[in-house]
Amino acid sequence: MPYRYTVASRVYTFEDLKTLLSRATPLRSGDALAGLAAAGFEERIAAQLALADVPLKVFLQEALIPYEDDDVTRLIIDEHQSTAFAPISHFTVGQFRDWLLSEQADTPTLQTLAPGLTPEMVAAVSKLMRNQDLIAVAQKCEVVSRFRNTIGLTGHLSTRLQPNHPTDDPKGVAASIIDGLLYGSGDAVIGINPASDSPAAVSKLLHMIDDLREKYQIPTQSCVLCHLSTTLQLIPDNPVDLVFQSIGGSEKTNQSFGVSLNMIAEAHEAALALQRGTVGQQVMYFETGQGSSLSANAHHGVDQQTLEARAYAVARKFNPFLVNTVVGFIGPEYLYDGKQIIRAGLEDHFCGKLLGLPMGADICYTNHAEADQDDMDNLLTLLGVAGCNFIMGIPGADDIMLNYQSTSFHDALYLRKVLGKRPAPEFEQWLIEQGILDKNGQKLPLKSNHQLLL
Amino acid sequence: MKKHTHSTSVEPDPWHSLKAYTDARIALGHTGTAIPLKEVLQFKLAFAHAKDAVYSHLEMDKLQQELSRFPLPQYLLHSRAMSRSVYLQRPDWGRQLDEASTQQIQNSTETEADVAIILADGLSATAINQHASPVLQRLIPALQKANYRIAPLSIVEQARVAIGDEIAHLLKAKMSVVLIGERPGLTSPYSMGAYLTYAPEPGTTDERRNCISNIRPEGLPYEMAVQKIVYLIQESLRLQLSGVALKDNAGHPLINDR
Asked: Tens of pLDDT along A24-77?
């Protein structure tokens, strides 16, 4: 069904819902590359004006990617809970935006609403929101997840300790882990991106982190971010805490990652059976990022931000412990500069949280994007205010294996300090016992005979 | 009243010895929650090198002169991406020749060749300025010795790997070798890659390519890089393929790419 909006005497026509959404999206290079962006400033706002009048119910009737062709669409439609949706079913997208910002939409209300929302509704409303709206609403969404500790409580900020090494050298990886732990990092997960996906290499790293965690009784979880099929193969005989996988917002995108919903379900079951969690059994760790579908030629004419929100439907199905939007990793052909990366980071965090996911962000950029560490400071601070569950902790913010820049252990300390945030409670207790932080979160001076250094 | 002076506030980390195990930026020390200025500036310097590399230009005169020692015609070409900013946002245009370049090759009357060598700026023209000539000085004589027919040399600006497909196809070459500047990292802003493709033509996809990366004296040195390239050219022309299949069949001790 076409959508129309008239500005002065000029009539803008948008042939269907996905076209309307793509034209209404704040400008980014990936949508321009796909030929989906609005042709001008006026067309973009005309699309936003038209989108504001679209009833939310329409998103349950008009699929962006046909139900028959795509298992992510089927997942979204089949899992939708109409009772949760009922209280807002009479809203248009514009009315939904105004309501989200009102006092009525408090934390418990938003938590109850989450299963009634589809990714497309959430993406649509985000396109009508300013950055401060995305922050204000996300801050009201508390999403808590549990495995060996508790992540996402209001007032807490966790980190994934990312100790990558170009050749997976266990000593090199261990050196970065020790550095991170002594800076109070690693409560979300100690997670390594392996240079090699071979089961033997991954197994070696899994055992190395697990031994370290056992030896010092660290209340956290580990993950080697290899392909899900490799993890599945390793599960029976290896200490697998969390199962990792990159996912996208269409069946074809997931195919390009070498996974299907059935494969993810199988790995989820296998990890649950290990019963390794102590305070909870949320065992999945997903990563996403705008642009992955276009990059895999699997976007179906849908804009990259809407596709990103659809990936969260895949994540939501498997009750994840962590969902991480790797926001600036993909490069300037999808998010050109600091402004676009910052906007995308806030959108992703907002959409994920509203859908009920434990969202964190890899606040990052590559050297060919128009961005630098100052842009990361901005996004870091904004996401901290928005209540982001976790960020990355990388030595000096410089990943020497993946060759990009993210956030450092120091950055996490900065954010906790200026916003008065604390690590996950169980991990904070351990840091205090280790003499790394004091009860106020202040970093303590350490001696060369600290037990982690022996 | 007693005068008070502040002391230097940087606290070093007592685990410097761990730096022996990794090049990661560990044991940086801190002042408050911040990274000490000395380390911040080291990071910014490395980043500046990487940014300069992204915006560097091919030194055309120098390259032309260095290449003129080989008895081969030269083509100076340009992609459809007219500027760096366009190049960064339109990878598709960086994979296509502009009209003038296409005509330049089409108007020539090239005979068939075995190998077309293409120099492309990619994301670090400096890498090509530094490493292309030393590699060609070793590569071209080795190919001539093995009696391979070499197509004219091409130098392309604002180019991505796949532009070599169109060029080699127009030059009627059985395979292409694209030397290109890789995406700069903080530790390696001037690293060169070599991409080999059998039967290149527009629309060729990446799984049909073999890649040798990190070519630079501190990474994969010139001699070793050229040995690998020559080996892959031989095998590719012999087996009439390139890409994943070629890697799997290569039992050569030199071929240990990840």
From this structure: 999 999 999 999 999 999 999 999 999 999 999 999 999 999 999 999 999 999
> What is residue B2's DSSP assignment?
-
Q: For chain A, what is the mean pLDDT?
A: 97
Rounded to an integer, what distance in angstroms lies between the CA atom of residue A329 and that of residue A34? 18
Helices (H), B36-122: 37-54, 60-67, 84-89, 91-94, 99-106
> Would the CB atoms of A398 and B186 count as touching at under 8 Å?
yes
Q: Which residue has the tokens 């969390």?
A: A242
Phi and psi based region of residue A395 (left: phi greater than 0; alpha: psi -120 to 50; beta: remaining): beta
Task: Give pTM, 2 decimals.
Answer: 0.94
* Contact yes or no for A174 and B21 at CB 8 A: yes
Which residue has 């960020």 as its token pair? A391
pLDDT category of residue A404 using cuts at 50, 70 and 90: very high
Q: How far apart are CA A141 and CA A114, in angstroms?
A: 10
B188 by DSSP, 3-state: which?
A: coil
Instruction: Provide the pLDDT for residue B1.
Output: 60
Cβ atoms of A151 and A390 within 8 Å: the answer is yes
**Which residue among B184, B185, B258 sits closest to A196, beta carbon to beta carbon?**
B258
| Shortest Cα–Cα distance, B41 to chain A (Å) | 12
- Report chain A residues whose CB lies below 8 A from the CB of B26: 175-176, 179, 395-396
The pair of three-digit structure tokens given for residue A86, joined into one six-digit string: 């009922």
Report the pLDDT value the prediction gives residue B78, as an integer from 0 to 100: 98
Which residue stretches of chain B have pLDDT < 70? 1-2, 247-258
Among the listed residues A137, A77, A184, the one whose alpha carbon sits nearest the alpha carbon of residue A408:
A184
Tell me if B22 and A182 make a contact (CB, 8 A cut-off).
no
Angle (nearest 5°) at CA B22 between B19 and B28:
45
Structure confidence at residue B254 (pLDDT): 40
Task: Determine the residue of chain A that is closest to B36 in CA distance.
Answer: A410
| Residue at A20: amino acid letter | L
Residues 223..242 of B with a Cβ closer than 8 Å to A: which?
none
For residues A292 and A248, the answer to whether their CB atoms sit within 8 Å is yes
Looking at the complex, does the CB of residue A403 fall below 8 Å from at least one CB of chain B? yes
pLDDT, one tens digit per residue, over B186-237 is: 989 999 999 999 999 998 888 889 999 999 998 899 999 999 999 999 999 9
User: Using a CB-CB distance cutoff of 8 angstroms, which residues of chain A are in contact with residue B23?
Assistant: 166, 400
Residue A438's contacts (CB-CB under 8 Å, 6 or more residues apart) are A432, A444
Taking the Cβ of residue A441 and every Cβ of chain B, the question of whether any pair is shorter than 8 Å is answered with no
